[in-house]
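Whiteboard transcription, Tuesday session. T.W. wrote the structure tokens on the left side:
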């Protein structure tokens, strides 16, 4: 989620020349992509995932895993833009930016811990998102090409290392699988909390670092150019389709499906395993066989899952960047929710609290979408920043200024 708008990159673009990618200091295509990510997550929370036949619904098949991945990739884009975009910052400026980003991460994480106490049955992403921000800080100096290479490498290495590490963590009594959203009370067990956020939770930061690095590579690119958008759209689609096709081919090899069934924690019947692979996992795979790395099921965190969902995220961002060039100011208002996703994601979670708009039904889904879209459009039309975005940006900005002042004094 982009929690700030006064980036160095934005200021540079405004001062250099007007272009069809920007509106009032924001890249409209990115806000449009955030709107899609937000609506996709609302869909996974407020609509039933399964048809009467037992197969996943079309909406679930499209949004599950991909919406959250798009959020994570966009987090990397924001991280890059807030640290200079394609322009290399001086070391002194970068230290100040890093201090501000660390504060953003802490504040976003606290919001996530508080929201988890509402018992909404939603896997709150914000706390994991905050850890991703912190993990991204060491990579702020890197250029787009280096970040892209690292992202590609981590798509493969991250899941493999996770598969090796998680049994060792379980052997030491640490959480091997945890589907509950971390809450403030979990701060009393910091090691367990760290293991869940990094390795075993719904959005494990260790493997999801690939999304962040991918997004940072995008954010270091020239996003005001139509050619960049076209490259993102085409390359993302090719990666996504290729990863899915490779997964299907690998799982169809003799004995692979049987191995997956045998190495489940509780070996299921064939139909149960098929359903599990279609509907998705809980952030990680079982550790009994490396063949689990061949699947691309939602929230499985495998190389092919990361490649497929990451490719989809690139394609969506590219398409949004291209489309919004047609009428940036109009699209900026229509998709204004993308300029305040932290506030509106929080509102959505609050409205899913028991007794409020918490049913799984199309009417409830559309009420949530209408609420976040109208509020976002109103705020954007009035030139206002989201309340939580404002608090986070001001606090982080103050810390960054103090860090810069200390460097001046030194």
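and on the right, the sequence the group agreed on:
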């Amino acid at each position: 989620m982009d929690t700030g708008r006064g980036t160095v990159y934005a200021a540079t673009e405004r001062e250099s020349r007007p272009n069809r990618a920007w509106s009032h200091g924001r890249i409209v295509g990115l806000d449009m992509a955030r709107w899609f990510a937000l609506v996709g997550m609302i869909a996974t929370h407020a609509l039933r995932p399964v048809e009467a036949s037992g197969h996943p619904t079309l909406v679930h098949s499209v949004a599950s895993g991909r919406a959250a991945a798009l959020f994570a990739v966009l987090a990397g884009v924001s991280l890059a833009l807030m640290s200079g975009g394609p322009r290399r910052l001086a070391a002194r400026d970068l230290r100040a930016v890093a201090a501000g980003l660390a504060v953003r991460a802490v504040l976003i994480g606290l919001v996530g811990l508080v929201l988890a106490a509402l018992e909404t049955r939603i896997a709150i992403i914000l706390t994991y998102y905050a850890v991703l921000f912190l993990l991204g800080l060491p990579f702020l100096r890197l250029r787009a090409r280096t970040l892209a290479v690292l992202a590609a490498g981590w798509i493969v290495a991250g899941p493999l290392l996770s598969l090796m590490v998680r049994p060792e963590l379980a052997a030491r009594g640490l959480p091997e699988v945890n589907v509950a959203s971390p809450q403030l009370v979990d701060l009393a067990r910091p090691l367990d909390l760290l293991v869940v956020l990094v390795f075993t939770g719904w959005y494990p930061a260790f493997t999801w670092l690939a999304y962040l690095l991918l997004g940072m590579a995008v954010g270091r690119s020239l996003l005001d150019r139509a050619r960049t958008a076209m490259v993102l759209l085409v390359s993302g689609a090719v990666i996504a389709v290729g990863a899915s096709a490779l997964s299907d081919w690998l799982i169809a090899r003799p004995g692979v499906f049987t191995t997956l069934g045998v190495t489940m924690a509780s070996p299921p019947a064939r139909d149960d395993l098929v359903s599990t692979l279609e509907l998705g996992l809980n952030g990680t795979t079982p550790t009994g066989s490396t063949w689990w790395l061949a699947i691309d099921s939602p929230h499985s965190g495998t190389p092919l899952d990361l490649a497929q969902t990451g490719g989809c995220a690139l394609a969506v961002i590219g398409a949004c960047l291209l489309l919004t060039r047609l009428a940036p100011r109009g699209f900026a208002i229509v998709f204004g929710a993308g300029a305040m996703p932290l506030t509106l994601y929080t509102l959505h979670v609050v409205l899913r609290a028991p007794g409020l708009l918490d049913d799984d039904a199309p009417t409830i889904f559309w009420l949530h979408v209408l609420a976040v879209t109208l509020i976002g459009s109103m705020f954007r039309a009035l030139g206002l920043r989201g309340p939580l975005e404002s608090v986070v940006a001001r606090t982080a900005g103050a810390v960054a200024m103090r860090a810069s002042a200390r460097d001046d004094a030194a």
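Someone added at the bottom: Residues 8-409 form one domain.
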